[in-house]
Write a structure and sequence with these properties.
With 117 residues, the protein is mainly α. Helix content is 80%, strand content 0%. The longest helix has 43 residues.
């Protein structure tokens, strides 16, 4: 059924948990505080890794879905493709919202600078 043993999955889970903790430590405690944005700047380091991991996961699932679709029933293949499409659309929506938030943040900063003068 599966080539990965339970021990292998436990080791993989432990490695994943360790790397997440290291990433959080590096983002929130090790990274320097940026002069203009302050503490908020640090969260970008964690989000960047999360975005890269999400993108890789979506691509891996898409490739695996196509590879395994030959062994799946048509209903299973259709369900898999719908799920992949839903996650890709969700990812793109969140990415667009993030860009909009950054643009709004820049607008707020410009207004604050204009009011301070």
């Amino acid at each position: 059924m599966s080539r990965i043993s339970q021990r292998g999955l436990n080791i993989l889970g432990l490695v994943t948990l360790t790397l997440i903790i290291v990433g959080l430590y590096m983002a929130f405690l090790y990274a320097q505080t940026e002069a203009r944005m302050g503490m908020v700047y640090r969260i970008f380091f964690f989000h960047l890794g999360a975005i890269i991991a999400s993108t890789v996961a979506v691509l891996v699932v898409a490739v695996a879905g196509v590879a395994y679709s030959f062994a799946l029933t048509p209903e299973m293949t259709q369900t898999l493709m719908v799920a992949i499409t839903a996650f890709i659309l969700l990812y793109l929506y969140l990415l667009i919202q993030r860009v909009r938030l950054e643009e709004l943040h820049d607008d707020v900063l410009a207004l604050q600078r204009a009011l301070a003068k």
